[in-house]
Amino acid sequence: MKTAKTYMEEANAAVPRMGAEEAIAKHAAGQGVFIDVRDSAAIAQTGTIKGAARIPRGMIEFRADPAVEAMYDPVFQKDAAIYLVCGAGGQAALAGRTLKDMGYSDVTNIGGFGDWKAAGGAVEAG
Known about the structure:
This protein is of the alpha/beta class and 126 residues long. It has a single domain (4-124), classed as Rhodanese-like domain (Oxidized Rhodanese, domain 1). The chain has six helices and six strands; from the N terminus they run H-H-E-H-E-E-H-E-H-E-H-E. The protein has helices at residues 4-14, 20-28, 40-46, 60-63, 90-101, 113-118; strands at 33-36, 48-49, 53-54, 82-86, 107-112, 123-124. The strands form two sheets. The chain has a four-stranded parallel beta sheet with strand order 3-1-4-5, with helices on both faces. Helix 5 (90-101) links the parallel strand 4 and strand 5 (107-112). Helix 1 packs across helix 5.
């Protein structure tokens, strides 16, 4: 039987983590796609990364699968560098593991939005 801890360990092993400073440099250079996987209420309270796609973790499978034409989001490209952010890094790791399982190879967990903001990353209102 798997536990939440098991899922997190597997996700963290599969999805590399990047610190806020390095992620901010990637963002500033226009490299990759940034996706906030928190729900809309959390984003409304705190804001998000400037220009980030807003795709809740619970919708990742549908939005990342081109076969689900009515829900697919073209922000998902198999060869794109994808950077995921959430509240503290857990949801981003789990969403990243799902994307890896779906064939997305360049997926990185950039941790929590609070770290991004504290490090001076570009933000926008939720």
